[in-house]
Backbone:
């Protein structure tokens, strides 16, 4: 699958460091979230930050698992991947790992957006009433996971015909957007 060994080494280093490091982060942050564990381990880190870091650790851990699957596919198929490519792309494992990587990316992006919004309110309104409480943060994070799951399931559920139609519509929309931007830039 990979043309040279340098890419294989980088893949395995990133994969293993992602899985191990995010597992450690998850466990270390989880102890601050469980009341029994909180009594055993004292921490000054806020609950919101722990919630954000827990969610990001899970998404990055999932990405590490995806990289592990790619690395194992490289070990199994090697330079003969092209012989099995069509079967892999149509198979259930490709769909599962596609779901995992899509979910991981979307949830990670939305959690980072939530962190930015929370920090924005904390900086712009330092003494104001606009605050994310721990319960609200958990509810928003759960909503993000649900939205990410729906977005990740959509390509799997839709038929190939609908997928091609959506790709065509997105292509047309992007072309029109670029034409509009070109016209708008040339106007000024």
Residues:
């Amino acid at each position: 699958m990979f043309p040279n060994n340098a890419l294989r080494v980088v893949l395995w280093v990133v994969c293993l460091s992602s899985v191990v490091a995010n597992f450690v982060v998850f466990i270390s942050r989880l102890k601050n979230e469980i009341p029994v564990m909180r009594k055993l381990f004292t921490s000054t880190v806020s609950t919101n930050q722990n919630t954000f870091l827990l969610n990001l650790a899970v998404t990055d851990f999932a990405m590490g698992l995806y990289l592990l699957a790619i690395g194992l596919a490289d070990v199994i198929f090697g330079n003969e991947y092209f012989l099995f490519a069509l079967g892999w792309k149509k198979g259930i494992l490709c769909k599962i790992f596609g779901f995992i990587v899509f979910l991981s990316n979307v949830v990670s992006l939305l959690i980072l957006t939530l962190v930015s919004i929370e920090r924005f309110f904390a900086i712009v309104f330092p003494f104001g009433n606009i605050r994310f409480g721990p319960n609200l943060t958990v509810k928003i994070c759960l909503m993000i996971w649900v939205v990410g799951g729906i977005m990740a399931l959509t390509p799997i559920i839709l038929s190939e015909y609908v997928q091609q139609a959506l790709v065509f519509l997105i292509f047309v929309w992007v072309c029109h957007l670029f034409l509009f931007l070109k016209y708008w830039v040339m106007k000024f």
Notes: The radius of gyration is 21 Å. The chain is about 85% helix and 0% strand. The chain has a mean pLDDT of 79.
